[in-house]
Write a structure and sequence with these properties.
CATH superfamily of the largest domain: Acid Proteases
Largest sheet: 9 strands, mixed
Number of domains: 3
CATH topology of the largest domain: Cathepsin D, subunit A, domain 1
Strand order of the largest sheet: 5-6-9-4-10-3-2-7-8
Radius of gyration: 24 Å
Number of strands: 32
Oligomer: single chain
Strand content: 35-45%
C-alpha cells in the first residue's frame, strides 16, 4: 500500500523510447498546424512537432517543481538571436496515447502546458503529414532510394525533393523560388513543421524588386468610399504569385510575413504550412528527403477532373471531405484539389438533420490543394444563429452536397459559413491571417485590394496625342 501511494504516476501504458508507428490526429483548427494532443502526467498538453528544433522544450506550466540541473543550453534562432534554457527532466510525456520514457528538455517560460518535440526525440523518424485528413504519421527513417521506390507506387503527382542541412546548426533547408508579377528571387529557406505562416526577410525581397501590400495601397488612389481598418497598417506582408519548391512544383497566392532587415544567419526566410500544406507531405530529415504528393488534375476549359491513386479521373475526386467527432459537433476538413480560377463554394449535407441554415465552405480564387478545418457548429454560430447552431450540435455525420463555381462574397478568404434560410444573414469562421494582422482585417484587405486592382487594370488608356 505504501508503494502504491508513493508512485501513483507509474500507472498507465508502458513507456516507449520512440513515436514510430503512431498515427495521431492534428489539433483541430482552421489553419494547418502540426500539433497533436498529449499530456504531461495528468496535465493536458499541446505537442508541437518541430523538425528544425535541435532540443525538446517544455513550458513551466507542464512541470510541478521541475528537477532542474545545473546545465544551461543556448539555442540559436534561425531568424537571429538566441535563447538560453535550463535543462530539466521531462517525465510522464504522453503523445496521442503513447507514453515516452523520461528525457532531457529545455525549460521554457509559459503558464500553459505545451511541449515542442525536437529532433532529439524524433531521431530516425520521418513525418507523414496529411492535411486533407489532418493526420500525422510517425514512420521509420529509410534511405532515399527506398523513398524513391515508394514514390513510384503512388498514383497522381509525386515529387521527391532534397532537403539539405545548414552546416553549422543542422537546420533543414530548402531552395525556394518566389515570384511576384515579373520579378523572382531564389533563396535558402528553413523548412518548418512548427510555423503556420511563411516569412521572408525584407532586404533580399526588396533587392529582388518585390513590393508589400502596404506599398500597393500607398500607390493606389483610394476612392473616398473605401475605408480600411486601422490595423492594416501593421500588415507588412508580401503576396507571392508563385512559390516554387522545384520547377513547376509549388503553390500560388501565398502571403509571406516580412521580417525586418537582412538574414543574419544566411536563412532568407521560413517555408511554413500555408505553402507546403497544399500537398500530402513526407519529410525525412535524416535522409534529406521531402516527398510531395497530390491528385493529378486534368482540365478542359472550366471543367476539371482529378485522379487519385489508380482510379479513373472524375470531378468528384477533386473534392475531399474528412470528419472526426469534436465536442458538440464534428471537426470537418474540406480540401479542393483542383484550381479555383473564380473561387468556389462547397455545401454540406447533414443526414437526419434539418437545420434552418445552409452550411458549407467558401474559397476565394486561387490554386489547388487549399484546405481548411472547422468544428461544426463553431462557437460563434451559437451567438449569431442560435437555432441553427443548436440543431447542428446533434450532428454525427457530414456529407458533400454540391459545389458552385463562385465564392460567398460575405466571407472573403477561406472560411466556413452558415446562411440563414429565412433572412439570408451569414455567419463566417475564416482562416487566421498573417502575424500582426487580425483575420477580420486581412479579409477586408483582400476584398478591398482585389477590387482596387481590378479597377486600376480596367481603366481605359488615353490615346496618344497625334504627331
Amino acid at each position: 500500500m505504501v508503494l502504491l501511494c508513493a508512485c501513483p504516476r507509474a500507472s498507465g501504458p508502458p513507456a516507449r523510447d520512440t513515436l514510430i508507428g503512431l498515427e495521431a490526429p492534428l489539433i483541430p483548427g482552421p489553419g494547418l498546424r502540426v500539433s497533436v494532443a498529449g499530456q504531461v502526467f495528468e496535465r493536458p498538453a499541446e505537442i508541437i512537432l518541430d523538425i528544425a528544433a535541435t532540443m525538446t522544450l517544455v513550458t513551466k506550466g507542464c512541470v510541478e517543481d521541475p528537477m532542474v540541473s545545473g546545465t544551461t543550453v543556448k539555442v540559436i534562432d534561425p531568424m537571429g538571436g538566441a535563447d538560453s534554457y535550463r535543462v530539466t527532466r521531462l517525465a510522464g510525456l504522453t503523445v496521442s496515447g503513447r507514453r515516452l520514457v523520461p528525457a532531457e528538455a529545455g525549460l521554457a517560460d509559459g503558464d500553459g502546458c505545451s511541449v515542442v518535440v525536437g529532433t532529439d526525440l524524433l531521431s530516425n523518424t520521418a513525418l507523414q503529414i496529411d492535411p486533407a485528413r489532418r493526420l500525422v504519421r510517425f514512420l521509420p527513417s529509410k534511405p532515399r532510394a527506398e523513398w524513391l521506390a515508394d514514390a513510384e507506387q503512388l498514383g497522381g503527382e509525386v515529387q521527391v525533393l532534397e532537403l539539405t542541412r545548414e552546416p553549422r546548426h543542422d537546420w533543414p533547408m530548402l531552395a525556394v523560388r518566389l515570384g511576384q508579377r515579373d520579378t523572382s528571387f531564389t533563396g535558402a529557406f528553413l523548412f518548418s513543421t512548427r510555423d503556420r505562416v511563411s516569412r521572408v526577410f525584407e532586404a533580399p525581397a526588396r533587392q529582388a524588386g518585390f513590393t508589400t501590400t502596404a506599398d500597393l495601397l500607398q500607390k493606389l488612389e483610394l476612392p473616398k468610399e473605401v475605408q480600411l481598418p486601422m490595423d492594416l497598417s501593421a500588415f507588412k506582408g508580401m503576396v507571392m504569385d508563385k512559390v516554387e519548391l522545384a520547377p513547376g512544383v509549388g503553390a500560388q497566392g501565398v502571403s509571406f510575413a516580412v521580417l525586418s532587415g537582412g538574414p543574419p544567419l544566411g536563412v532568407d526566410g521560413v517555408l511554413a504550412a500555408d505553402a507546403w500544406g497544399r500537398f500530402e507531405l513526407t519529410v525525412d530529415v535524416s535522409s534529406g528527403v521531402l516527398m510531395l504528393h497530390r491528385p493529378r488534375v486534368l482540365g478542359s476549359g472550366q471543367r476539371y477532373q482529378c485522379a487519385r491513386g489508380q482510379r479513373s479521373p472524375s470531378e468528384d475526386a477533386c473534392f475531399e471531405l474528412a470528419q472526426v467527432s469534436a465536442g458538440r459537433g464534428v471537426a470537418v476538413t474540406a480540401t479542393v484539389w483542383r484550381p479555383l480560377p473564380d473561387g468556389g463554394r462547397l455545401y454540406l449535407d447533414f443526414p437526419g438533420l434539418s437545420p434552418a441554415c445552409r452550411v458549407g465552405f467558401t474559397f476565394d480564387a486561387g490554386d489547388r490543394g487549399r484546405n481548411t478545418q472547422h468544428v461544426v457548429p463553431w462557437p460563434r454560430l451559437f451567438e449569431s444563429m442560435k437555432p441553427c447552431a443548436e440543431t447542428l450540435a446533434g450532428v454525427t455525420q457530414v456529407s458533400l452536397a454540391l459545389f458552385e463555381d463562385s465564392p460567398l462574397k460575405e466571407c472573403p478568404g477561406v472560411c466556413a459559413f452558415a446562411q440563414d434560410l429565412r433572412t439570408g444573414r451569414v455567419s463566417c469562421e475564416c482562416q487566421p491571417g498573417p502575424t500582426g494582422l487580425s483575420a477580420e482585417a486581412e479579409r477586408v484587405l483582400l476584398e478591398k485590394l482585389r477590387g482596387l486592382l481590378q479597377r486600376r487594370d480596367a481603366r481605359p488608356t488615353e490615346p496618344a496625342d497625334p504627331p
